[in-house]
Amino acid sequence: MKLLTGLLFCSLVLGVSSRGWFSFLGEAYDGARDMWRAYCDMREANYIDKYFHARGNYDAAQRGPGGVWAAEVISNARENIQTLLGRGAEDTLADQAANEWGRSGKDPNHFRPAGLPEKY
Questions:
Q1: CA–CA separation, 110 vs 93, rounded Å?
Q2: 113 secondary structure, DSSP code
Q3: How far apart are CA 53 and CA 41, in angstroms?
């Protein structure tokens, strides 16, 4: 647990760079909200799809370095938990590819499933 806390703290410190702490933390908070919104939309739409992974990461990354950091931490934590619960490595790799696609600023609609309402 101490190792995980130390790694999390170091990644936060390294992610701040020359921007102010308050700006970074605000971006991280807003990015986490973007990730939550994508998750809620996925549940509401009843589509478990890579599109929502890419969209949540994309929206969070648009906030700035804090949003990118939050998206990466949340995505990695989610995938690590699912790996521990026995979800297949192939699906985890596909989820992480969609996560990285969105975080890099690429259009999440690349993963948009046919028939998904325009609301999402």
A1: 17
A2: P
A3: 11
Max avg pLDDT among 17-26, 66-75, 83-92:
66-75
Tokens 């499933």, located at residue: 113
* pLDDT tier at 117, thresholds 50, 70, 90: very high
The answer to whether residues 101 and 110 touch, using CB atoms and an 8 Å cutoff, is yes
Rg (CA), the chain: 15
Read off the pLDDT of residues 22-38 as tens digits, 9 standing for 90 and up.
899 999 999 999 999 99
CA dihedral 8, 10, 14, 15 (to 10 degrees): 10
CA distances, 67 to each of 53, 88, 105 (Å): 14, 28, 12
Residue 20: its pLDDT value, please?
Answer: 78
CA distance 74 to 97: 14
Please, are residues 88 and 27 in contact by the beta-carbon 8 Å criterion?
no
